[in-house]
Design goal:
With about 425 residues, the protein is of the alpha/beta class. The protein has 4 domains: about 120 residues, 3-Layer(aba) Sandwich (Rossmann fold), CATH 3.40.50.12160; about 110 residues, Transcription Regulator spoIIAA (2-Layer Sandwich), CATH 3.30.750; about 120 residues, Transcription Regulator spoIIAA; about 60 residues, Beta Barrel (OB fold (Dihydrolipoamide Acetyltransferase, E2P)), CATH 2.40.50. It has 13 helices and 18 strands. Strands 2-1-3-4-5 form a 5-stranded parallel beta sheet, with helices on both faces. Bound molecules: iron/sulfur cluster (SF4). Iron/sulfur cluster binds next to helix 7.
Length: about 425
């Protein structure tokens, strides 16, 4: 049977799609990018914003319209939050909510009577991940979150924390490494909460991954900046752990963080970053900031900007606050005017560019190892360093670098301060 898989949203959705792809192939089915050829269509939805919900609905409709004969399975956060989805959107044969999505492949084959497929499972052909033009794998380590940040719908859609076993995680990593993958990203909803339900923690998991796998590059997905074990940063002494962390701050004002019900205040954040920068050479820090959270005064915004500037990030994902039905923040009064949000977002984009430029300039003259992804028609190779800096290197003599790791020296940065330029050493 031919299966077409589509996802929207976060790295966790992407990781789930990768594991479904592997599971369908292990049961003798094959993947197709050609939606019209598929017998089974699977859509993994997102609900992080109203806009994401709209896009999810559009994708489901479009998928069904382009192949009304195929069976259609829908999963993910939007599908888990909207009980009326099957009544509202025609063509959906099966909805599998977030609590059951790890068993999606077996449930879909059974519920839709596809079980009759050949028992002989065939060795997966070209690894689905490469087929989808990717050379690093997202590995789901846990799902759900016990916290209730007032702007967050994910905690509502994904439920309580559930950790995967170390054995399953290590099996996935070794399977991807066998297929030629050089880098994995450990991802989840609340990565720092890994093991809370199975008497383990993230430090122990990473140690176990280091000793039971040979994958050269282990990267962490987004990690909430609290609950990291004391000795956590000592893990980065192993150069297989990539020296970059994405630690969402959300606001640099403690009174705003209080209204967001965030567990981490600016002082805690500051201490954590100081420890990381003391222990990890060439540590790269990125973050998320919400602009225009309800009630955000000019004073609070200035506090936020000052703290962000003082902390310094190489990149910031900037989210302009939008009401998300089903969250506590949507009920808060003093919603900030959109023109003020726009102005603050513009200001933060400018600051982000300045900070990135200075971080990239600090890299000039330094040596880094790069995992090469692809080469464009102008013989420019693109890839990422161990501390997650995008590299471009023009070299017409070099043929096959894709998915290889090699050493470079940083020689400059591009005019838009988006990547570094390098030469081979
Ligand atoms: S910790 Fe993260 S996932 Fe959990 S509620 Fe807060 S923002 Fe959402």
């Amino acid at each position: 049977m031919q299966i077409n898989l589509k996802t929207l949203g976060c790295r966790l959705n992407e990781a789930e799609l990768e594991s479904w792809a592997e599971a369908f192939q292990a049961r003798g089915h094959s993947l197709t990018d050609n939606l019209e050829q598929a017998d089974l269509l699977v859509v993994n939805t997102c609900a992080v914003t109203q806009e994401a919900v709209k896009k999810s609905r559009q994708l489901i409709r479009r998928t069904h319209r382009n192949n009304p004969m195929a069976k259609l399975v829908v999963s993910g956060c939007y599908a888990s939050l909207d009980e009326k989805i099957q009544k509202d959107i025609p063509g959906i044969d099966l909805v599998i909510n977030n609590q059951k999505k790890d068993q999606l492949v077996d449930i879909a084959l059974k519920e839709l009577n596809f079980d009759s497929m050949p028992a002989i499972s065939t060795e997966p052909g070209e690894a689905s991940i490469f087929k989808r033009g990717r050379n690093r794998a997202f590995i789901k380590i846990q799902d759900g979150c016990r916290y209730r940040c007032t702007f967050c719908i994910v905690t509502v859609a994904r439920g309580e924390e559930r950790s995967r076993s170390e054995a399953d995680i290590i099996k996935d990593i070794n399977q991807f490494h066998q297929q030629g993958i050089q880098e994995i990203i450990l991802t989840g909803v609340h990565v720092g909460g890994y093991g809370s339900d199975i008497n383990l923690n993230l430090y122990q998991l990473i140690n176990s991954v280091l000793s039971n796998t040979d994958i050269p590059r282990i990267r962490l997905g987004s990690v909430e900046p609290w609950e990291l074990p004391e000795e956590f940063f000592s893990l980065f002494a192993n150069d297989r752990i990539m020296p970059h962390m994405h630690l969402p701050l959300q606001s640099g004002s403690d009174s705003v963080l209080k209204r967001m019900a965030r567990r981490c205040k600016t002082n805690d954040y500051k201490k954590l970053i100081q420890q990381a920068r003391n222990e990890i050479p060439n540590f790269n820090l990125t973050t998320d900031i919400i602009v225009g959270f309800p009630g955000e005064t000019e004073e609070e915004w200035q506090e936020s900007i000052n703290f962000i500037e003082e902390t310094s990030f190489s990149h910031i994902h900037i989210f302009t606050y939008s009401k998300r039905e089903g969250t506590k923040a949507a009920t808060l009064t003093n919603q900030v005017d959109s023109s003020i949000k726009k102005q603050r977002s513009k200001q933060l984009h400018a600051l982000t560019k300045t900070m990135r430029e200075s971080f990239l300039n600090e890299q000039i003259g330094q040596t880094h190892s790069v995992l090469w992804e692809a080469c464009n028609e102008d013989n420019v190779w693109k890839g990422y360093t161990e501390n997650f800096i995008r590299i471009e290197l023009k070299d017409s003599n070099t043929s096959e670098l894709e998915n290889k790791i090699s050493k470079v020296k940083i020689t400059g940065i591009d005019d838009n301060a988006e990547h570094c330029i390098a030469e081979f050493i």
